[in-house]
Amino acid sequence: MELVHCVASDGIRLDGIWYDATPGLLPGQTLVIMHHGVGGTFFSTGFFDESVSWLTCCGAHVLRANNRGHDIVSRPAGGNGSYAGAAFEAMDDCYLDWEAWCTFAVKKGITRIVLWGHSLGAVKSVLYCARAPLPQVCALVASSPPRFSYSQFARLADEWPEFEEFYLQAKALVETGVGNTLIEVRKPTPLLIAAARFVEKYGPDERYDYFRYLPSLSVPTLITIGSKEGVEVRPGLSRLAFWEAAESLPAVTHRYPNVSFAT
Question: pTM, whole model, 2 decimals?
Fold first, then answer.
């Protein structure tokens, strides 16, 4: 394995770690790119740990990659001193990050790319594949993608009032011209985030609800949701992001030939 990096088209440097494949069953030069969730890093997302050796033994190269949403707050190289990380990232920048890593892979001779995103990385992977991915992208796995659905949140009566309180706080800061103010929220997930980014992600426009992008997916896609996500109630754990997703997805994905679902 080796430490690697790429540079997005806007100059942001992204780091990752590359694992070489052992000769296996997969055809061509196949690469699985693993994308972490909110505030994660390529080296700290335990979700992927046990899959790396299995995939390399099957004959796939593996790349665990950072995107600019790594860590809660970061100051990325090439960012002209601006802040990034989960607190400040703009969702639309995921297109730049995903394109940069895919381009990096193609330059290394990769002919088949499988994108595997976890949590927020899963949502971003859906967004990228629904637009115009590089032709080498042949499949997508989206594990535990959270909903960004204001209307869905409003239906969960026991958690909605607290979420709405955070949303109105963030909205007021944006309207008074201080949208970069950091606020600490607990719903739909505990996070330190700039008010403008909270409104962008969780507002009534629902720009990033991945359900609306499923019809545009042109590559074979597997969505997975944990059987307890959105169901189990524990202190500090909100059900909002996954509530009824597992119940809704079978009927939704049935309409789209490229999309399948499993718990």
Answer: 0.95
